[in-house]
Structure formats: C-alpha cells, structure tokens
Amino acid sequence: MISVVIPNYNGAEVLEACLLCLARQTVSDFEVILVDNGSRDRSLELAARVRPDVRTLVFERNRGFAAAVNAGIRAARGRYVALLNNDVQVEPDWLEALVEALEADPLVFAAGPKMLLDPERHRINVVGIKLKPNAESGSIGAGQEDRGQYDRPGQVFGVSAGAALYRRDVFEDVGLFDEDFFAYLEDVDLSFRARLLGYRFRYAPRARAYHLKGWTTRKKMPSAFEIRLNARNVLLCQVKNLPAGAWQAHRARILGRHLELFFRHTVQRLYKGDARPYLTGKMEFLRMREAVLAKRRAVQAARRVPDEAITFWLGREVVVDGEETP
Which of 30, 93, 307, 308 is within CB 3.0–4.6 Å of 243 for a Cys-Cys bond? Predict the structure, then answer.
C-alpha cells in the first residue's frame, strides 16, 4: 500500500482539484492522509465530502510544512509515502510511474515527477533539486519551456517534496524532515542527509504533476516571510550538510554568493526600507548556531560516502541512465 500525505493550510480553493486527481490514479491501493495546519477555512469539510475515506490529522496552529509532513509520515501505513502539496494536480499514472522508479533500484530513497506550472502547463516548475557550483540549491528546469529536454529518466541530487514518492522505512535511517526549517529548503536538507548516507534520488519523467507555484505563500503569507526563512534556511542547510572537502574546494564561490545576496537584500534595499526580513533571517540563524553545529557534527559523523559523492553534483542536473555517478 501507498500513503499519500497532503499538508494543508487554508487550502479550500485548491484542495478539491488535488483530491479529485487522486481518484483517477491507475494505482488503487493507497490511503490519503490530510494534515491540516490550523486552517480556518472549510478545508476539512471539503475533504470529507470529496473523499470520505480521508484520514485527517489536525494541528491547532500552523506548525509549518516540515512538521505537517512528518506527522503524516509517522501515521502512514504504506510501504511508500507520497508527499503531495494541496496546490498540485497529478496525472492518472503519477503514482504508478513513481513506484516503478523506486522498485528499479533498492538504493533509491525517493523519486520525483516532471512538475509543470499551472496554468502554464508548457513550462517547467521543477524536475529535481540541483546544487549549483556555489553549493546553492536550485530547481532543475525552472521556468523553461518543456521541449522534451528532460524526457529521459535518471538520477538527480534530490527531489522536490511537492509531489514525490519516498520509501517509508528509509526515513528510519535518514530521519524525518528537520522541523527547524518550518518551510523552504527542508527537502534540500533531507536530500543532502540521504546522499551522505549513500542513498539515491531518481527523476521519473513519465510521472507528471502541475503546480500552482507559490499559491500557499502568495495567498496566505507575506513576501517578508519567504525572504526571512530563505535567508535563514540556506545557512541551516549548508552548515549542517556540506562536507569539509566541498567547502574547501568551492569556498570562493560559496562566500561570493553569500556576499552577493547580502548586498542585494541589504544595501540595495535600504532606501526602500525592506532589508529587515533578510537580516532577521540571518539573526535567527545566529541564535540557532550552537544547535545547528551540533546537528552538523551528528550528520558528518554518520555519513558513509566520501566528499566526492557530494562534490560530483555541484553544477550537475539530471544524470541520465547510462551515465556514471559515484
């Protein structure tokens, strides 16, 4: 069986379409777990009407994406766990194609689809997580017109948690999503930790999903919220996970990128008076630094692969089947 976990926060406008897509899946043996993050709209009522068998977990307040999906993973009864954003719609063979990708290689922790934008379904949202040469993460294919350039399956550094399928038992080895992130980059952090333990991630282009990108934060959160969390979380992710060898080999690019972002979000924004969210995020990281360094020690002590297993991915996107990986 498969467990499909849907985190939800005031998502009544989009949730029905998401649930109806699941009703058309070619795979029938799955359960749906809706984790509600303190919604004040009619989300729960709508979910019960559209899918009466839905299992619901309800938080009294918004505890963030990571906490929501972790609760769903803990409650899951399936061998595999799919994470699906409430603002995503999927094709009928989405689950089937992702299951095939996992079953082809026992070392694959998770597989992700070709996620396109909605309503611009000719444009790509993400086909996987990449690491740039400066160790900053990015979305492979983001904004590109889909011309078939990502139609070959292969490995990626990591997968976006918006519509991916995971092996539930591997979470016991890798750990769940880090709830200190709250939202943004928690899937990059998970991908890093899994890679350091020797697990792989696959891109399955036959699985397709369509994302109303930014709907949740655009509709429900101020832009300052996103800026603050990204400013903080990029440091959380890199400090926890980047091996010393990767840092030494790429430190000029890494530091240069952080200085560029600092200039862009502070000096260039001072006259507008909106530098505060970025600086607040950095200050939050400084307050968390002792806990983050403790996590780094644990992550690096547990790793099973050499630095090259991470540095290989700096600057790479999809390594298609037939090409060598570490």
Answer: 307
Q: How many CB atoms lie within 10 A of CB 201?
A: 24
Task: Report which DSSP code applies to 317.
Answer: -
Across 24-38, 208-222, 281-295, least confident range: 208-222
Among 95, 293, 309, smallest CA distance to 207 is for 95
Indicate the domain borders of the chain: 2-220, 223-305
Token pair in block for residue 28: 């029938």
Q: What is the dihedral of CA 136, 177, 169, 161, to 10 degrees?
A: -60
In the block, which residue shows the tokens 């790479």? 316
**Tell me, which fold does domain 2-220 have in CATH?**
Spore Coat Polysaccharide Biosynthesis Protein SpsA; Chain A (3.90.550)
* CA dist., res. 204 & res. 296, Å (int): 31
What does the buried/exposed string (b/e) look like for 211-240 if buried means 16 or more CB atoms within 10 Å of the residue's CB? bbbebbbeeeeeeebbbbbbbbbbbbbbbb
Pairing assessment for the beta strands 30-37 and 2-8 based on DSSP bridges: parallel
Q: How confident is the model over 209-265, as pLDDT tens digits?
A: 999 976 554 544 458 888 999 999 999 999 999 999 999 989 999 999 999 999 988
3-state secondary structure of 315: coil
If you ran DSSP here, which 8-state letter would residue 314 be given? B
Dihedrals phi, psi of 125, to nearest 5 degrees:
-90, -55
pTM above 0.70, yes or no: yes
Q: How far apart are CA 255 and CA 263, in angstroms?
A: 12
Q: Is 206 exposed, middle or buried (0-12, 13-18, 19+ CB in 10 A)?
A: middle
Give the angle 51-77-200 at the CA atoms, nearest 5°: 110
What tokens does 78 get?
A: 């399936």
Q: What is the DSSP letter of 59?
A: E
Phi and psi angles of residue 84, each rounded to the nearest 5 degrees, phi first: -140, 120
